Amino acid sequence: MAEEQQQSPPRREIVTGVPRGARRRPPAHAPARSEISEHTTLGATYVRALMRSQLRAGLGALAALVVLVGTLPLLFALPRAASGPLVWVVLGLLVYPVMWLIARWYVTRAERNEADFTGLVTDPAERSA
Predict the structure, then answer these.
(1) pTM, entire model
(2) Closest by CA position to 95, among listed 115, 65, 128
(3) Are 99 and 68 in contact (CB under 8 A)?
């Protein structure tokens, strides 16, 4: 019984390592960014999709601008008595705010396309860090 009291408790060992949150697991699939940089078919498809969406936004803005500016000659073709002050009101007050709205819509759409593309090609582990 004296031997049992004399023994010290077993020594505890501390194990250190990388904290759980900092561990990086390999992605389940190859990140799209590597597909793009390696010029694979999938990477080309990602880039082509971005270019198409940007082209669609640009053509939409261009179409709206053509409709806006294309109708002005029709307005100016009205008889002079009816269109005199109207021409200046349209040119001075209405055209520029509408052009600004078209440009603002285009920039917003282009930024959204780029954000969607970035979200697609970014590895989910990198986004949370």
Answers:
(1) 0.63
(2) 65
(3) yes
